[in-house]
Amino acid sequence: MQRIVTVLSTKGGTGKTTQTYNFAKWLGSQGHQVLLIDHDHQMNLSTAFGIFNSPNTIAGVYDKEFKDPKILNVSKNVDLIPGSMHLGSIGETLINRTMREFILYNWLDKNYEAYDLGKYEYILLDSHPDVSIISKNAIMISNHVLSFVEPSQFGGFDAMDSLKARMQEFKSEAVVPRTQQSYVTADTLFVGNKVAYNTNASHEFRKSVSEMKDVVAVIPQKELFNRSTIEHRMIFEYEDGDQRNTKFFRDLRIEYGKIKQAIDKPEEEGN
Ligand SMILES: Nc1ncnc2c1ncn2[C@@H]1O[C@H](COP(=O)(O)OP(=O)(O)OP(=O)(O)O)[C@@H](O)[C@H]1O
Ligand SMILES: [Mg+2]
Protein backbone atom coordinates (compact mmCIF):
# COMPACT_ATOMS: atom_id res chain seq x y z
CA MET A 1 0.00 0.00 0.00
CA GLN A 2 1.31 3.43 -0.93
CA ARG A 3 2.06 5.90 1.86
CA ILE A 4 2.26 9.63 1.25
CA VAL A 5 4.03 11.71 3.87
CA THR A 6 4.54 15.46 4.19
CA VAL A 7 7.62 16.38 6.19
CA LEU A 8 6.72 19.62 7.89
CA SER A 9 7.46 21.83 10.87
CA THR A 10 6.57 25.38 11.77
CA LYS A 11 10.14 26.03 12.86
CA GLY A 12 13.04 26.12 10.41
CA GLY A 13 16.25 24.12 10.63
CA THR A 14 15.02 21.15 12.65
CA GLY A 15 16.49 18.68 10.14
CA LYS A 16 13.58 17.95 7.79
CA THR A 17 15.59 17.99 4.58
CA THR A 18 18.64 16.19 5.97
CA GLN A 19 16.56 13.43 7.48
CA THR A 20 14.26 13.13 4.45
CA TYR A 21 17.33 12.76 2.23
CA ASN A 22 18.88 10.05 4.39
CA PHE A 23 15.66 8.25 5.28
CA ALA A 24 14.64 8.06 1.59
CA LYS A 25 18.02 6.66 0.59
CA TRP A 26 17.84 4.18 3.43
CA LEU A 27 14.37 3.05 2.27
CA GLY A 28 15.78 2.74 -1.25
CA SER A 29 18.68 0.63 0.01
CA GLN A 30 16.11 -1.71 1.58
CA GLY A 31 14.52 -2.24 -1.83
CA HIS A 32 11.58 0.15 -1.45
CA GLN A 33 10.47 2.39 -4.31
CA VAL A 34 10.51 6.02 -3.18
CA LEU A 35 9.41 9.25 -4.84
CA LEU A 36 10.62 12.49 -3.28
CA ILE A 37 8.94 15.78 -4.03
CA ASP A 38 10.93 18.89 -3.21
CA HIS A 39 8.06 21.09 -2.09
CA ASP A 40 10.24 23.86 -0.61
CA HIS A 41 11.40 26.86 -2.63
CA GLN A 42 14.73 26.75 -0.77
CA MET A 43 15.31 23.61 -2.91
CA ASN A 44 17.66 22.08 -0.35
CA LEU A 45 16.51 18.54 -1.04
CA SER A 46 17.19 18.86 -4.78
CA THR A 47 20.58 20.38 -3.99
CA ALA A 48 21.42 17.47 -1.69
CA PHE A 49 21.10 15.24 -4.76
CA GLY A 50 23.20 17.62 -6.85
CA ILE A 51 20.18 18.91 -8.82
CA PHE A 52 20.42 22.70 -9.15
CA ASN A 53 18.40 24.04 -12.03
CA SER A 54 16.11 21.55 -13.60
CA PRO A 55 13.62 23.11 -16.06
CA ASN A 56 10.88 20.66 -15.10
CA THR A 57 10.03 21.24 -11.47
CA ILE A 58 7.15 21.08 -9.03
CA ALA A 59 6.26 24.65 -10.15
CA GLY A 60 4.60 23.14 -13.24
CA VAL A 61 1.93 21.62 -10.99
CA TYR A 62 0.86 25.02 -9.66
CA ASP A 63 1.41 27.42 -12.55
CA LYS A 64 0.76 26.88 -16.26
CA GLU A 65 3.60 29.29 -17.11
CA PHE A 66 6.05 26.64 -15.96
CA LYS A 67 6.92 23.38 -17.70
CA ASP A 68 5.40 20.12 -16.55
CA PRO A 69 7.39 18.38 -13.84
CA LYS A 70 9.67 15.50 -14.72
CA ILE A 71 10.63 12.66 -12.45
CA LEU A 72 14.38 12.12 -12.17
CA ASN A 73 16.11 9.05 -10.83
CA VAL A 74 18.54 10.32 -8.19
CA SER A 75 19.64 7.24 -6.29
CA LYS A 76 18.99 3.51 -6.11
CA ASN A 77 15.18 3.13 -6.00
CA VAL A 78 14.80 6.85 -5.25
CA ASP A 79 13.26 9.32 -7.72
CA LEU A 80 12.74 13.06 -7.36
CA ILE A 81 10.50 15.80 -8.62
CA PRO A 82 12.85 18.79 -8.29
CA GLY A 83 11.95 21.93 -6.39
CA SER A 84 11.58 25.45 -7.75
CA MET A 85 12.74 28.74 -6.27
CA HIS A 86 9.46 30.22 -7.55
CA LEU A 87 7.19 28.00 -5.47
CA GLY A 88 6.90 30.50 -2.60
CA SER A 89 5.83 33.39 -4.80
CA ILE A 90 3.51 31.14 -6.81
CA GLY A 91 1.86 30.22 -3.51
CA GLU A 92 1.11 33.87 -2.81
CA THR A 93 -0.75 34.22 -6.12
CA LEU A 94 -3.10 31.38 -5.16
CA ILE A 95 -4.82 33.22 -2.32
CA ASN A 96 -7.94 34.03 -4.33
CA ARG A 97 -8.19 30.76 -6.22
CA THR A 98 -11.16 28.56 -5.36
CA MET A 99 -10.15 25.09 -4.23
CA ARG A 100 -6.64 26.46 -3.79
CA GLU A 101 -5.69 23.64 -1.40
CA PHE A 102 -6.62 20.96 -3.95
CA ILE A 103 -4.21 21.83 -6.76
CA LEU A 104 -1.70 19.07 -6.04
CA TYR A 105 -4.51 16.65 -5.24
CA ASN A 106 -6.12 17.25 -8.63
CA TRP A 107 -2.80 17.08 -10.46
CA LEU A 108 -2.04 13.72 -8.82
CA ASP A 109 -5.45 12.43 -9.72
CA LYS A 110 -5.06 13.45 -13.36
CA ASN A 111 -1.45 12.34 -13.81
CA TYR A 112 -1.25 9.24 -11.65
CA GLU A 113 -1.04 6.85 -14.59
CA ALA A 114 0.90 9.03 -17.02
CA TYR A 115 3.67 9.43 -14.41
CA ASP A 116 3.35 5.81 -13.25
CA LEU A 117 2.99 7.01 -9.65
CA GLY A 118 1.42 3.74 -8.53
CA LYS A 119 4.82 2.06 -8.50
CA TYR A 120 6.00 4.06 -5.48
CA GLU A 121 5.59 2.60 -2.01
CA TYR A 122 6.53 5.90 -0.41
CA ILE A 123 6.00 9.44 -1.61
CA LEU A 124 7.76 11.92 0.68
CA LEU A 125 7.33 15.69 0.35
CA ASP A 126 9.89 17.99 1.91
CA SER A 127 8.38 21.36 2.75
CA HIS A 128 9.11 24.93 3.71
CA PRO A 129 8.77 25.54 7.47
CA ASP A 130 5.27 27.00 7.37
CA VAL A 131 1.65 25.98 6.95
CA SER A 132 1.13 28.02 3.77
CA ILE A 133 -1.26 27.21 0.93
CA ILE A 134 1.56 25.28 -0.72
CA SER A 135 2.15 23.19 2.41
CA LYS A 136 -1.60 22.64 2.76
CA ASN A 137 -1.65 21.19 -0.74
CA ALA A 138 0.91 18.63 0.41
CA ILE A 139 -0.99 17.85 3.62
CA MET A 140 -4.17 17.34 1.57
CA ILE A 141 -2.69 14.34 -0.28
CA SER A 142 -0.90 12.83 2.73
CA ASN A 143 -1.54 9.92 5.05
CA HIS A 144 0.79 11.43 7.61
CA VAL A 145 2.53 14.65 8.48
CA LEU A 146 5.98 13.86 9.85
CA SER A 147 7.64 16.56 11.91
CA PHE A 148 11.16 16.81 13.30
CA VAL A 149 11.64 18.53 16.64
CA GLU A 150 14.78 19.36 18.62
CA PRO A 151 15.54 19.41 22.31
CA SER A 152 15.50 23.22 22.41
CA GLN A 153 13.00 25.70 23.77
CA PHE A 154 11.45 26.81 20.47
CA GLY A 155 12.31 23.80 18.34
CA GLY A 156 10.90 21.30 20.83
CA PHE A 157 7.59 21.15 22.66
CA ASP A 158 6.56 24.66 21.60
CA ALA A 159 7.03 23.64 17.98
CA MET A 160 5.00 20.47 18.56
CA ASP A 161 2.12 22.41 20.07
CA SER A 162 2.16 25.00 17.32
CA LEU A 163 2.08 22.41 14.52
CA LYS A 164 -0.69 20.45 16.24
CA ALA A 165 -2.73 23.64 16.56
CA ARG A 166 -2.21 24.56 12.89
CA MET A 167 -3.17 21.04 11.78
CA GLN A 168 -6.30 21.13 13.91
CA GLU A 169 -7.24 24.50 12.46
CA PHE A 170 -6.75 23.27 8.89
CA LYS A 171 -8.72 20.08 9.56
CA SER A 172 -11.68 22.00 10.88
CA GLU A 173 -11.57 24.54 8.02
CA ALA A 174 -11.40 21.99 5.22
CA VAL A 175 -14.68 20.20 5.76
CA VAL A 176 -17.39 18.91 3.46
CA PRO A 177 -20.20 21.43 4.06
CA ARG A 178 -23.04 18.95 4.42
CA THR A 179 -21.38 16.28 6.55
CA GLN A 180 -18.76 18.44 8.31
CA GLN A 181 -16.27 15.64 7.67
CA SER A 182 -12.73 16.89 7.03
CA TYR A 183 -10.96 16.42 3.72
CA VAL A 184 -7.73 16.28 5.69
CA THR A 185 -7.10 12.79 6.99
CA ALA A 186 -3.38 13.03 7.80
CA ASP A 187 -2.33 12.57 11.40
CA THR A 188 0.77 14.22 12.85
CA LEU A 189 3.79 12.15 13.88
CA PHE A 190 6.87 13.59 15.55
CA VAL A 191 10.50 12.55 15.54
CA GLY A 192 13.01 13.96 18.01
CA ASN A 193 16.13 15.05 16.13
CA LYS A 194 19.65 16.20 17.09
CA VAL A 195 19.30 14.50 20.43
CA ALA A 196 22.66 14.05 22.14
CA TYR A 197 23.46 11.04 24.30
CA ASN A 198 25.00 12.76 27.24
CA THR A 199 23.65 16.23 27.99
CA ASN A 200 21.09 17.08 30.65
CA ALA A 201 18.76 18.72 28.16
CA SER A 202 18.76 15.74 25.83
CA HIS A 203 18.31 13.36 28.74
CA GLU A 204 15.23 15.28 29.89
CA PHE A 205 13.97 15.40 26.31
CA ARG A 206 14.34 11.63 25.82
CA LYS A 207 12.49 11.02 29.05
CA SER A 208 9.60 13.31 28.18
CA VAL A 209 9.10 12.03 24.64
CA SER A 210 9.29 8.39 25.67
CA GLU A 211 5.85 8.96 27.20
CA MET A 212 4.36 10.64 24.13
CA LYS A 213 2.54 8.34 21.74
CA ASP A 214 2.90 10.67 18.79
CA VAL A 215 6.71 10.83 19.08
CA VAL A 216 7.65 7.79 17.04
CA ALA A 217 11.46 7.92 17.01
CA VAL A 218 14.48 9.83 18.32
CA ILE A 219 17.47 10.52 16.07
CA PRO A 220 20.87 11.12 17.64
CA GLN A 221 22.86 14.28 17.10
CA LYS A 222 25.73 13.63 14.74
CA GLU A 223 27.86 16.11 12.82
CA LEU A 224 28.19 13.54 10.00
CA PHE A 225 24.64 14.39 8.89
CA ASN A 226 25.89 17.76 7.73
CA ARG A 227 28.61 16.14 5.62
CA SER A 228 26.19 13.63 4.15
CA THR A 229 24.04 16.18 2.30
CA ILE A 230 27.03 18.30 1.26
CA GLU A 231 28.88 15.29 -0.15
CA HIS A 232 25.70 13.70 -1.59
CA ARG A 233 26.22 10.51 0.38
CA MET A 234 23.83 8.58 2.59
CA ILE A 235 24.89 8.60 6.23
CA PHE A 236 25.39 4.81 6.27
CA GLU A 237 28.08 5.15 3.60
CA TYR A 238 30.30 6.59 6.35
CA GLU A 239 30.09 3.40 8.36
CA ASP A 240 33.75 2.51 8.31
CA GLY A 241 34.02 0.12 11.20
CA ASP A 242 35.21 2.84 13.57
CA GLN A 243 34.19 1.45 16.96
CA ARG A 244 33.17 4.88 18.23
CA ASN A 245 30.38 5.03 15.67
CA THR A 246 28.98 1.53 16.15
CA LYS A 247 26.31 2.60 18.60
CA PHE A 248 25.25 5.57 16.49
CA PHE A 249 24.71 3.54 13.31
CA ARG A 250 22.95 0.76 15.18
CA ASP A 251 20.63 3.24 16.89
CA LEU A 252 19.95 5.12 13.66
CA ARG A 253 18.87 1.91 11.86
CA ILE A 254 16.51 1.15 14.73
CA GLU A 255 15.05 4.67 14.71
CA TYR A 256 14.62 4.77 10.90
CA GLY A 257 12.90 1.40 11.25
CA LYS A 258 10.52 2.93 13.82
CA ILE A 259 9.71 5.82 11.48
CA LYS A 260 8.97 3.37 8.67
CA GLN A 261 6.75 1.32 10.94
CA ALA A 262 4.80 4.39 12.06
CA ILE A 263 4.36 5.55 8.46
CA ASP A 264 3.20 2.10 7.36
CA LYS A 265 0.35 2.18 9.88
CA PRO A 266 -3.02 3.67 8.95
CA GLU A 267 -3.50 7.23 10.11
CA GLU A 268 -4.82 7.74 13.64
CA GLU A 269 -8.30 9.20 13.69
CA GLY A 270 -8.55 12.58 15.34
CA ASN A 271 -4.82 13.01 15.86
N1 LIG B 1 20.67 14.51 13.74
C1 LIG B 1 21.40 15.59 13.43
N2 LIG B 1 22.55 15.85 14.09
C2 LIG B 1 23.29 16.94 13.82
N3 LIG B 1 22.98 17.85 12.88
C3 LIG B 1 21.84 17.65 12.19
C4 LIG B 1 20.99 16.52 12.41
N4 LIG B 1 19.93 16.60 11.56
C5 LIG B 1 20.12 17.73 10.84
N5 LIG B 1 21.24 18.37 11.21
C6 LIG B 1 21.79 19.65 10.70
O1 LIG B 1 20.86 20.70 11.00
C7 LIG B 1 20.94 21.72 10.01
C8 LIG B 1 19.54 22.01 9.48
O2 LIG B 1 19.08 20.86 8.81
P1 LIG B 1 18.05 20.92 7.61
O3 LIG B 1 18.46 21.91 6.59
O4 LIG B 1 17.85 19.53 7.18
O5 LIG B 1 16.77 21.48 8.37
P2 LIG B 1 15.36 21.84 7.77
O6 LIG B 1 14.37 21.54 8.81
O7 LIG B 1 15.18 21.18 6.44
O8 LIG B 1 15.49 23.41 7.54
P3 LIG B 1 14.41 24.35 6.81
O9 LIG B 1 13.30 24.53 7.79
O10 LIG B 1 15.16 25.61 6.53
O11 LIG B 1 13.97 23.64 5.57
C9 LIG B 1 21.90 21.19 8.94
O12 LIG B 1 23.16 21.77 9.15
C10 LIG B 1 21.94 19.70 9.19
O13 LIG B 1 23.16 19.10 8.79
MG1 LIG C 1 14.69 22.02 4.59
Description:
This protein has one domain (3-264): Rossmann fold (3-Layer(aba) Sandwich), CATH 3.40.50.300. It has ten helices and eight strands. It has helices at residues 16-29, 44-48, 59-62, 87-93, 103-111, 133-140, 157-173, 200-209, 224-230, 246-264, and strands at 3-7, 34-39, 72-75, 78-81, 122-127, 144-149, 187-195, 215-220. Helix 8 links the parallel strand 7 and strand 8. The model has no long low-confidence stretch (mean pLDDT 95). The structure holds adenosine-5'-triphosphate (ATP) and magnesium ion. Residues 12-19, 40, 42, 44, 129, 193-194, 219, 221-222, 225-226 line the site of adenosine-5'-triphosphate (ATP). Pfam families: AAA_31. This is ParA family protein. Keywords: Plasmid.
Residue share in helices? 25-40%
- Which residues sit in consecutive blocks of at least 5 with pLDDT less than 50? none
Question: What share of residues are in beta strands?
Answer: 15-25%
Q: Which ligands does the model contain, each kind named once?
A: adenosine-5'-triphosphate, magnesium ion
CATH level-four homologous superfamily name:
P-loop containing nucleotide triphosphate hydrolases
Total count of strands = 8
Given this structure, which CATH class is correct? Alpha Beta
Largest sheet: 8 strands, mixed
Average pLDDT level: 95
Helical region count?
Answer: 10
CATH architecture: 3-Layer(aba) Sandwich
Shape: globular
| Spatial separation of the terminal alpha carbons | 21 Å
CATH topology: Rossmann fold
- Element pattern in H and E: EHEHHEEHHEHEHEHEHH
Please state how the strands of the largest beta sheet are arranged side by side: 3-4-2-5-1-6-7-8
Q: What Rg do the Cα atoms give?
A: 18 Å
Number of domains: 1
Protein name: ParA family protein
Keywords: Plasmid
InterPro entries: AAA_dom, DNA_Partitioning_ATPase, P-loop_NTPase
